[in-house]
Amino acid sequence: MADWNRRKPIDSLVATAAEHRLVPTLSWPHLLALGVGAIVGTGILTLIGVGVDRAGPAVLLSFAIAGAICACAALAYAEMATLMPTAGSAYTYSYAVLGELVAWIVGWCLILEYSLVVSTVAVGWSGYAAPLLTGVGFPVAFTASPALGGIVNLPAIFIIAVVALLLCMGTRESARLNTALVVIKIATLSLFVFFTLPAFDPSNLEPFMPFGFAKTMGPDGVERGVMAAAAIIFFAFYGFDAISTAAEETKNPERDLSIGIVGSMIACTLIYIFVAAAAVGALPFTRFADSPEPLALILREMGQGQVARIVAIAAIIALPTVLLGFLYGQSRIFLVMARDGFLPVGLARISKRGTPVRITLLTAVLVAVLAGLLPIDEIAALANAGTLIAFAAVGACMLVLRRRAPDMRRPFRVPFAWVVGLGAIGGCLYLFASLPTKTLMACLIWNVIGLVLYFGYGRRRSLLGRAR
Questions:
Q1: Which of 9, 78, 253, 295 could form a disulfide with 85 if both were Cys (CB 3.0 to 4.6 A apart)?
Q2: What stretches of 346-416 show up as alpha helix (H) in DSSP?
Q3: In what helix (H) or strand (E) does residue 217 lie, and over which residues does it extend?
Q4: At the top level of its lineage, which domain of life is listed (predicted)?
């Protein structure tokens, strides 16, 4: 077997040294809250505006398509996570099934996904918090990155530090706080639907598909269509993959992982459809298209200014759940890559509280630099590209393992596996092709850098490579 194609034995995945082994403290309600907390966030709060700008009222169809593709990926994740209950998510599955090079590419894409999501959400949170801070004399220069005329975005760095410290304190403790914040978030969206759904006007849905179905370039240089919107709205759905990174910390992974992954996807899809239908039915889409705060704008246009303020305040309180979910996931990806030798093994050491403090703090520093100093709004769509590659890889892992080891015990067995697996792979590739062209080029450059690092460093450093 070629060096780049060597695979990690599945049996070795759970045979981790005690000093590197995470402590199981989570049950399915914690996982469900982790998934909903990571999924429901800036996506639903802001991307409805971007979505209707790209697809018009047919954004409802965009949500349905993105949700269906994510549902296929979520089912594949559920089978693989219960089969390999260890941290690492798509990177680990790819290492065991598709080989080291594919695993490195998937891990590299996951680093892209998690880093950009955490940084983007932190900057978004800072945007809500900055007016409150500057109102009490906080210097404006310390609320924006240099590219936006500031010195450093300290609020974004602050919220990342707070979430990182919560994770270092203990997984169970941070999971409890996350659950409480998720309840606030769901209550806020329910409040929006309660006030807007009675104002539903079917005429606001006409014309339903003004920009067509496939991705087309508009006269203003913006790519529009149902699929163009779906490729961006996809950002609003992922986050359930963070649950799979918690496999090693789950008390009963064979049961709880599938409940958490599939349950969070079902719950979030229903939430999104209700919120999107209420939004496009309450107001003509042109009045809130591309708004950075579409839900609050709709409420203000309806004369519900007080409710709009409640939604904005609740967003500030609950948005850190997204940070917690993705920072948690990225630290676990880094943890497993350190175990495998791609990062210094000492970073994988677990503290007395049962958490990977070293790798969590390192992760927080990296994303804080991005959030504090770099203009990330233009490259945030790159997170979608990295995620789509990882999701397609998990679908492929499930199908390859079904063919290679059909009799292997599977605690959660996906029904109609080939339909689901091909749906995940094909759907993700179609959404990938529907991304903006500049995003695809940036993704190519990112992966070329990753391949250079692998062949120049990673291939020699990996534990499998040194064991040969």
A1: 253
A2: 357-373, 382-404
A3: strand 216-217
A4: Bacteria
Q: Give the N- to C-terminal CA distance of the chain in Å, as an integer.
A: 11
3-state helix, strand, coil in the chain (%, to 5): 75, 0, 25
Pick the CATH number of 3-466 from 3.10.20.30, 2.40.10.220, 1.20.1740.10, 1.20.1560.10: 1.20.1740.10
Q: Give residue 43's pLDDT band: very low, low, confident or very high (50, 70, 90).
A: low
Check residue 27 and give its pLDDT.
Answer: 82
Burial of 135: CB neighbours in 10 Å, binned 0-12, 13-18, 19+ = exposed
Paired residues of 224 in beta bridges: 216
Rounded to an integer, the average pLDDT of 383-411 is: 89
Mean pLDDT is highest, among 16-25, 54-63, 309-318, 458-467, for 54-63
- For 223, the 3-state DSSP assignment is strand
Is 334:348 a contact under the CB 8 Å cutoff? no
Query: For the residues of 410-432, what is the DSSP string, one character each?
Result: -SS--TTHHHHHHHHHHHHHHHH
Please tell me the distance from the alpha carbon of residue 76 to that of residue 394, in angstroms, as a whole number: 6
Residues 6+ apart with CB under 8 A from 270: none
- pLDDT for residue 401: 93
Give pLDDT tens digits for 215-231: 777 777 777 888 888 87
pLDDT in tens, 248-257: 778 888 788 8
pLDDT in tens, 6-39: 776 666 555 554 445 566 777 888 888 877 877 7
DSSP state of 26: B
Burial 257-266 (b: 16+ CB within 10 A, else e): bbbbbbbbbe
**Structural contact between residues 70 and 257, judged by C-beta atoms closer than 8 angstroms:** no
The pTM score is: 0.81
Residue 155: per-residue pLDDT: 87
CA 101 to chain centre: 23
User: For residues 34, 120, 366 and 257, what is the CA-based torsion angle, rounded to 10 degrees?
Assistant: 20
**What is the per-residue pLDDT for 397?**
94
Q: How far apart are CA 75 and CA 259, in angstroms?
A: 10
Distances (CA, A) of 334 to 89, 359, 371: 11, 7, 19
Q: Quick one: 118 exposed, middle or buried, by C-beta within 10 A (0-12, 13-18, 19+)?
A: buried
Give the pLDDT score at 21: 58
Q: Which amino acid is at 57?
A: P
Query: CA 68 to CA 305: how far, in whole Å?
Result: 35
Using only the alpha carbons of the chain, give its radius of gyration: 21
**Alpha carbon distance 429, 423 (integer Å):** 10
- How far are the Cα atoms of 196, 198, 423 from residue 297, in angstroms, in the given order? 12, 17, 36
